[in-house]
């Protein structure tokens, strides 16, 4: 590679890394506890646990909905969801109105068998960590900003890979020059750890970028696919009396054989129309359990109005989410994700140190420096 090309890639690597450094350290620091957020919530007592019901029949979904409304008088149900990793719990979302602000949402867990209230969800210190990691408490603008930092991080990784060979071609792989200066030793460690973590860092960085675009993707889906699904019912008033949720569940499962319900969106919410329920179905394999298929049902009769698969860009979003946090392979994968996160922080920190050390080395010496240190003749 020509020296001029190497210098150009070096400039790209340096400045994309420097610009994103502070925010990448924030993302790595907050991302580390989020890998274990289920375990931390359980340890701190913020994770409701289902009751023990050996062989007991599950409560009807309508019974859970009635319990949720009784726990939040004067509010309305907006969503009911099921965590595939915690089948003994049903989560109910309530708000002041169907299209109320997200910050006004209350999420509570109910026992899937007794329909008894177990406690709130989404409270405690991990909520603060999650907000810092996703948008820095700046809403959509914060998400897009962090997405831009993620793209810079990806460019820094790619440029680092391009520079690896020119700077290490005379060294054996994994060589650490212990007898060299401290700066050279740090450079060798920076290069080695960077190469070890390059694939993981690129995957996590790019999936994080995709996640910051989630709201934009959902808005696009609602403006196109969902609008097409509800077009035949344009002008139809909101339902006066909602259909039984048990009927909604039964008909949604019949419309999507072999699939189970991930969550139900009530009429008037962001994921449905003013007149329809939307049941989002998922498969039972490791891959299909991450992909959703919406089934639109009449709000008064529970009759199926339409069903279709999600577009490719939303499927990519759904697949990227578990990849980002490594929460699809149990505790062993979480430990690996955490170790790689720590190593990435070392790469980022060592890169910052190398830049500062290089600046100090290039700093010009004042003209009178030697005169001040020179001995005075007698």
TrEMBL record:
Keywords assigned by UniProt, alphabetized: Membrane, Transmembrane, Transmembrane helix
Keyword Glycosyltransferase: no
Superkingdom of source: Bacteria
InterPro entries linked: PepSY-ass_TM
The name this protein goes by in its record: Peptidase
Residue ranges of the TM segments: 12-36, 144-165, 186-210, 335-356
PANTHER family named among the record's database cross-references: BLL7967 PROTEIN (PTHR34219:SF3), IRON-REGULATED INNER MEMBRANE PROTEIN-RELATED (PTHR34219)
């Amino acid at each position: 590679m020509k020296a001029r090309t190497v210098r150009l890639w070096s400039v790209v690597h340096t400045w994309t890394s420097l610009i994103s450094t502070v925010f990448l350290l924030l993302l790595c620091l907050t991302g580390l506890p989020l890998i274990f957020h289920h375990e931390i919530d359980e340890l701190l007592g913020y994770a409701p646990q289902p009751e023990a019901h050996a062989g007991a029949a599950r409560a009807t979904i309508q019974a859970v909905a009635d319990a949720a409304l009784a726990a939040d008088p004067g509010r309305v149900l907006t969503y009911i969801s099921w965590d595939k990793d915690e089948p003994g719990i049903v989560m109910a979302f309530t708000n002041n109105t169907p299209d109320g602000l997200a910050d006004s949402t209350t999420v509570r867990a109910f026992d899937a068998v007794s329909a008894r209230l177990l406690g709130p969800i989404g409270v405690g210190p991990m909520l603060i960590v999650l907000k810092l990691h996703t948008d820095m408490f700046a809403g959509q603008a914060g998400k897009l900003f962090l997405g831009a930092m993620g793209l810079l991080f990806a460019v820094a990784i790619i440029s680092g890979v391009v520079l690896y060979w020119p700077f290490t071609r005379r060294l054996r792989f994994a060589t650490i020059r212990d007898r060299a200066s401290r700066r050279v030793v740090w450079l060798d460690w920076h290069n080695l750890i960077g190469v070890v973590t390059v694939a993981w860092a690129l995957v996590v960085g790019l999936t994080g970028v995709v996640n910051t675009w989630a709201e934009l993707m959902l808005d696009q889906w609602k403006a196109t696919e969902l609008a097409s699904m509800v077009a035949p019912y344009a002008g139809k008033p909101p339902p006066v009396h909602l259909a039984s949720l048990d009927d909604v569940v039964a008909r949604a499962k019949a419309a999507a054989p072999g699939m189970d319900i991930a969550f139900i969106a009530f009429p008037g919410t962001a994921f449905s129309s003013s007149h329809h329920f939307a049941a989002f179905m998922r498969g039972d394999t490791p891959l299909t359990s991450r992909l959703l298929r919406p089934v639109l049902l009449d709000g008064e009769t529970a009759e199926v109005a339409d069903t279709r698969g999600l577009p490719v860009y939303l499927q990519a979003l759904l697949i990227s989410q578990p990849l980002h946090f490594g929460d699809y392979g149990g505790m062993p994968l979480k430990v690996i994700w955490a170790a790689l996160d720590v190593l990435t922080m070392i790469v980022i920190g060592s890169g910052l140190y190398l830049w500062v050390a290089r600046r100090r080395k290039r700093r010009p010496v004042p003209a009178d420096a030697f005169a001040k240190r020179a001995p005075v003749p007698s």
